[in-house]
Amino acid sequence: MRKTVLQVLTFLCAGVVSFNVNAQDKKYPEPESMSPGMSEWWKPQPPIVTPGTATDAGSTTAPSDAIILFDGKNLDQWQKPNGDAPEWIVKNGVFTVKPGTGEIRTKQEFGDFQLHIEWRIPENVQGESQGRGNSGVFLQGKYEIQILDNYNNETYSNGQAGSVYKQSRPLVNAMRKPGEWNVYDIIYEAPTFKKDGTYRTPPRVTVLQNGVILQNNTIIKGTTEYIGFPKVIPHGNGPILLQDHGNPISFRNVWIREL
Ligand code: MG
Fold it and tell me: I want to staple 249 with a disulfide (CB 3.0 to 4.6 A). Which of 12, 117, 135, 202 is the partner?
């Protein structure tokens, strides 16, 4: 008897279903485990560019439509991730990481923004590579723009100051000396997501350090992991989060403009 088209299609569909069931049951090898060094690229090292000299007038106050995240007086705009008050130290118009007390984040959450933040490595900085003057600015709490002392201190280039950590090395090294203030101006475009949780449009970031461009509309591939590949995790607005990496990095004049 000749099979009808419907019978043929039913037969084919049944075959596909049984194939998939078999594939689910089959044992495949697990991915091999990764170590931190597998995502650390040392060459090429970003060229050194001497930024313009910092002057007192070089630290401008916030524009009229900015949200002030630190005005020199207190950390009222900040909290620990668990909601507790930050323990970082506010003194002389500056706040400083108190090592071991953990990261701090803004109470407010943001989408697209322009962020201005000034940071200083202590003059008597100790250590080398990633252990020397390490902190970081996490955009929407997920994507780290590295803060590190790379003045006469080499490290893997995709972990240097101004890197999208372990994803994109900075175009150049525009560090000022320990004890001097560095300025980040960060322009960020938040991602959008498909229903399946992948990026419809990935996050993008532009970073200037001391007026020198380090990241030029760089695509962020996902979370900035110490070990392994970036992860794509669906999220909405998020905070600015500052890292406690055990080094007493100071900050001042922090403001943000929503875009
Ligand atoms: Mg860091």
Answer: 135
